[in-house]
Write a structure and sequence with these properties.
single chain, 57 residues, alpha+beta, three-stranded mixed beta sheet, 14% strand, NADP, NAD(P)-bd_dom_sf, oxidoreductase
């Protein structure tokens, strides 16, 4: 069994914390973390992601 370790940014999301001016919906903010949690065993590891795109650390 291969364990993948990644991190994600949800961006500025319209929540009680983010406020009503945040440009991203809750669904947009949740998309990348859910995608990372459901990657196949051969998916990327060791990355930092936003909108399913890897960002530089």
């Amino acid at each position: 069994m291969r364990i993948l370790i990644n991190s994600a940014s949800s961006g500025w999301v319209r929540t009680d914390l983010g406020g009503f001016r945040a440009p991203r919906s809750v669904e947009d903010g949740a998309d990348t973390p859910v995608w990372l949690a459901t990657l196949p065993a051969d998916g990327p590891t060791g990355g930092f992601f936003l909108d399913r795109q890897e960002l530089d650390w």
